[in-house]
Specification:
The complex is a heterodimer of chains A (117) and B (113). Chain A is mainly beta. In chain A, 0% of the residues lie in helices and 51% in strands. Chain A is built from no helices and eleven strands. Chain A has strands at 5-7, 10-13, 19-24, 31-38, 42-50, 53-57, 64-68, 74-78, 87-94, 107-108, 112-116. In chain A, strands 2, 4, 5, 6, 9, 10 and 11 form a seven-stranded mixed β-sheet that branches. Chain A has a four-stranded antiparallel β-sheet with strand order 1-3-8-7, with no helix packed on it. In chain A, a hairpin with a 3-residue loop joins strand 4 (31-38) and strand 5. Chain B is mostly beta strands. Helix content of chain B is 0%, strand content 52%. Chain B contains no helices and eleven strands. In chain B, strand 4 (33-38) and strand 5 (45-50) form a beta hairpin. The chains are: A mainly beta (117), B mainly beta (113). Chains A and B meet through strand 5 and strand 10 of A and strand 5 and strand 10 of B.
Amino acid sequence: KAGVTQTPRYLIKTRGQQVTLSCSPISGHRSVSWYQQTPGQGLQFLFEYFSETQRNKGNFPGRFSGRQFSNSRSEMNVSTLELGDSALYLCASSLADRAASYNSPLHFGNGTRLTVT
Amino acid sequence: QQQVKQSPQSLIVQKGGISIINCAYENTAFDYFPWYQQFPGKGPALLIAIRPDVSEKKEGRFTISFNKSAKQFSLHIMDSQPGDSATYFCAAGPNQAGTALIFGKGTTLSVSS
């Protein structure tokens, strides 16, 4: 079974631009979560989607948005990029109707490395 | 109440030694505690997880110890190997729909041969 697939793997953007990142969950997984990983800050929760509905959102500005499609694939968008948005963006999926549980853990992709110059 | 505090930030252990990483949480609603392992260039991968109804869970060389009253849990890696060199994240969550896992800031483990 294929794992969580994130595209692209690397992105270089300029301040003020916008970017869209894509995530394909494991087949059959309906919950998709996004995390931002930066050195020293660990993984910061961005948002979680289930059945095309955003169920939870982390403490990030409105420049960060996402959506989920009927096939469970998800995209996240960052508008008006800032230097501080440089990070590894991780997508994770889980099988059940909850973001993560003992019987339905989060499975992460390898991330998209975003560099803002 | 949403924080998960992880220590140490980095750890160097000799091959064959025991690696210990500690985490503490505040939210008593948390009842799912996984540990993730991350190698450079890869996403985090689930290593081992525990529910609060048990005090210890062992899988091979990896053991989680859980202290519900102290709201602390730790990862022990026995007979540490160079291949265990990675970043380890603890996490905690309420194990219910629409909630997010909260992660610690990570521990970079180096096992010297």
